Amino acid sequence: MGYAAAPGMYFCVSNSRVICLDILADRYFGFSDCTDRALQALLTGRELMPHEIDHLSQLCIEGILVANASSPAHAMTLLEPQTDSGSLSLGPDFHQTVALALGLLLLSGFELRARPLSQIVERIRTVNAKPTEALNTKKIPRDNILAAFAACRKIMSAQDKCLKNALALFRLLRIYGHPCQFVIGVRSRPFAAHAWVQDGAEVLIDELDNVRLYTPIFTV
Hints:
- A hairpin with a 4-residue loop joins strand 3 and strand 4.
- The protein contains 7 helices and 10 strands.
- It starts with a strand and ends with a strand.
- The chain has 2 domains: 3-67, no CATH class; 83-219, no CATH class.
- With 220 residues, the chain is an alpha+beta fold.
C-alpha cells in the first residue's frame, strides 16, 4: 500500500522534524515522535515497519494522507539558493513601476486579510500557468521591477510582511513574462515561516543568508 499527501497538505523535514502545511486550513503543525519517524520513512522511501504503517493509517483517518497512492508527497522542483539580486538602481519610467509595485503590495495585503490562503494560491497558479506570450507584451525589465520593490521596502516596513511582499513581487514578474517561483519555507526550534521569490537559484529582493535558514515546503 502506498501513501500520498492529501489535497492541500505539504510536507518537509526541517532540523530532523517533519512539518506539515495545510493550505486549506492555513496552518502548520508537527507530529509526535513515533508519527514523525513513520513520515520520515515514507518521505525517504525507506521500507515501512508494521507499527509505522499503523501511524500512517491513522493520518489517513485524520485526512492528512491518502492511501493506495504511488507518490509520497507533492513534487517540488526548486534549485537550492546560491545568490541574491543584491543592490539595484531604478531605471527609466521608475515612477510607473514603483506605482505598480505599491498597487500590488496593497492588493496582496487586502487579499490576505479577506481571502483564505488556498484561494490566493489558486489565483497565482492561474497567473503562473499562462504562457509567456499570453502575458503583457509591453515588458518591464526584470531588474526595474526588482529595483521598484526594493524602493517600496524603504517606504513600507517589510517586517513580518514577507508573504504580502512575495505574492506581489511574484505577480508583477509573471504579469510581465519573467520566470520566477513563489516559495514558502519553514524552520523549527523555534518554529518560523517565511515566503520569498526565486528565479532559478537566485533569491529576489531578499537576503541569501536569511532564506537559507528555511526549508522549502511549498512552491508555485
